[in-house]
Amino acid sequence: MINLFSKGASFLLQVIFVVAAVLVFTWFDPFDFLAPTKTTLKDTPIQVESIKEIGKLITAEYYGEVIASLDEVIEKELQVVTINFKDTIDYINDHFKDAIQELQKVEKFEKKQNPYQYFYLENINLISTELFEVYLKFVFDELSPYHTYKFNDFDDALTGSQKEKLFRKLYKNKWKITNITDTKLRVLTAIFDKIETKKSYKEYKKSKLVLIGRGWIKAGFNFENFNDRNFRYNKDNKKVYFIGLKPEILSKTMNPWFIPEEGVEGFEFIIAEKGGLHNPEYTKKVKRRCLEKLEAQALEKQILKKAKKNAENGLKTFFEILLNEELKAVAFHSNYLNYMQDALISDTIKNNDLFAIDSSLVFYYKTYMPLSSKSDSVKFKKDTIKYVKEITNLTDFMDSLTTRNIEIFEKPYPIDSRTSLFFEIIEDFKIDTFDYQKIKDISQLTLLDTIWYMKPYLKINTDTLQGLIKGDSIQFFRNLENFIQNRDPEHDFNDPVMQQIRDLKKDELAAKLKEIFEGN
Amino acid sequence: MKIYKYIGLLIVFTILAVSCQKRDKRWLVISKIKSTAKLATTETTIDKVVIGNKQRKAFGLVKVSNSDFVAYTEATVLTGIDLTKLKKEDIKIKRNIIEVNLPQVEVLDFQYPFEKFEIDRHLSNNKFLSKVDVIDMEGFYREAESDIRKYLPYMGITEQTEENTRKMIEGLLKNLGYKEIYISFKNDSTKSLIPKINWNKYLNNHD
């Protein structure tokens, strides 16, 4: 009986073993006899969805290849998430400190109202910020002598009684909010980073994906909003001008084929394992990373600068053929100011040019000024950086004006905020009642004065500027403008305070201005 | 015991055969910036549904497993003219009258972006032994791209591009002071809509 049983078991084992071996052989199928996986693409129609008119001039093309991996993508995602967390916590911390200072000024609360309730009513925007409860828990644990913030506390929130205790202690200054230093906040960020790293490890679970991506970046000019105002042909100085056009990246492409005729693939899978082999979302992320790297490579090789230069050279030949004459140059100017610098300022400045100069200064100053009015730190920082870049154009233009003179009665006079007014008064060789009124009004500061005064301060670097943007200082430039406009120099543009400010170095200037505004 | 010996040998042989696979040809792209002056006047958007199938048959006869893959894709083609191909002999000027014979319209950029690939998870199915992996998907996308490129000359893009280009160049010539403008396009049937590029400057291949 036992013999029979063992023979049967042995036979069964052999059968299982043979079937398993056949399946394994079928899976790998090294000789292609079992006609392994065969992929076929079905014939489906190709539909033209739309054909639209565009105007793009491609003047530089960058071809390259890059390598990217899923690990790289995960690391970058983590970095971005951590930086956003840090920025939000810093923002909450700054606003919370200001709000607590305001709370401490309250002498009496309404009936049955405690500091916690008061705070929540007065700071609705702050308390509705994402991560505010996380921050509050951290502050409570760090300030309380009986608690210490731990890794596992991240997902916990304060109870109602804990919040009441926290705000009561802060109101009475028994717990000092100034003890929550930047160094302490870094601990919170580090804990967050650790939690996110654990989460992503769990999500990606040893998936591996490494791709080579090949593609191209094309740069040039977009003529979509092009009209007569963007184009000037000066027959006298043989120059063609394009105004208001900046070189930009027109397309960034990585196709499945890089060169179909040569069989060069756009994407080559170097390693693809586990989730990396089966999850198309991971592939998309890595491809996106490849494209970002390719664009970065092209920008490093100054594709935009080359696109502008190529456009100027290429179009010069094109226009010479169309006009059947030699041209001096074709120039691209990103705005009217740059065009004026080139076309107007390079030549003799005429009287009616002064009006164009003044109008342009006012127009560009006004359009560049607005910053986001809401104290959202991330957007405000972006707006500030954009503002600093744009205002540099204006200051460069004004710098070029200060090197030029206008001739009045064959005498050179420098260009400043009062040149056009001065010329207006003396051009008819007499001073009448209207001119007299204009002279009386000279003591009043105008917007043009503000622009000229602000010129040296406008080039404050972004770091100094961002250092001043905290709480109410968000209105920094508006405060600066008001400050200058409210001064009454009595037609004395060498105001001693202004002179002192001009002499200061940039970091000293930032501190001095902060002192002035906080003093006001 | 003999049978175990044979099966053991078969497994060892299989592993050896799988590990001795032919190495694919490898390309290296030499990164360069190329100067051009190409005026794109038309953008055509093309839709294509990619339907792929993966089958596994035992001994070429018996279907063991079958999987389907469905994705919606979109391509964008920019067409226009290469301004560097315009020569002096293509222009005739008489006072303020100009006759221009513009270069043939061609594809200036072909984009088949992966961001626009949307897999239909309801229609796609993945079965054991014939799972469609990302490498298979890439193969399907490549075939689809070749398909689109093949049929581009028949989509009526050339005519629309000529019309748009004519409009743009006329506007430009008016700004230059010409009053009478005549525009025509070169038409060389030997040249395709997709221009031939000499890729040797950009490629090095390694076997």
Verbal overview:
The complex is a heterodimer of chains A (520) and B (207). Chain A has 520 residues and is α+β, with helices and mostly antiparallel strands. Chain A is built from 20 helices and twelve strands. In chain A, strands 2, 3, 6 and 9 form a four-stranded antiparallel sheet that branches. In chain A, a hairpin with a 2-residue loop joins strand 11 and strand 12. Chain A starts with a helix and ends with a helix. With 207 residues, chain B is of the alpha+beta class. Chain B is 27% helix and 39% strand. Chain B contains three helices and nine strands, in the order H-E-E-E-E-E-E-E-H-H-E-E. In chain B, the strands form three sheets. In chain B, strands 2, 3, 6 and 7 form a four-stranded antiparallel sheet that branches. In chain B, strand 2 and strand 3 (62-82) form a beta hairpin. The longest helix of chain B is centred in the C-terminal third of the chain and has 19 residues, at 157-175. Chain B starts with a helix and ends with a strand. The mean pLDDT of chain B is 83. Strand 2 of chain A pairs antiparallel with strand 2 of chain B.
Oligomer: heterodimer
Q: How helix-rich are the residues of chain A, as a percent range?
A: 55-70%
Q: Give the class of chain B from helix and strand content and strand pairing.
A: alpha+beta
Number of helices of chain B: 3
Low-confidence stretches of chain A: 464-495, 516-520
Number of strands of chain A: 12
- Biggest chain pair interface: A-B, 97 and 105 residues
Write down the overall geometry of chain A.
flat
Beta content of chain A comes to 15-25%
* Spatial gap, N to C terminus of chain B: 45 Å
What's the gyration radius of chain A in Å?
A: 34 Å
- Radius of gyration of chain B, CA atoms, in whole angstroms: 26 Å
The total beta strand count of chain B reads 9
Structural class of chain A: alpha+beta
Helix tally of chain A equals 20
Unreliable segments of chain B (pLDDT under 50, ≥5 consecutive)?
none
> If you average the pLDDT of chain A, what whole number results?
78
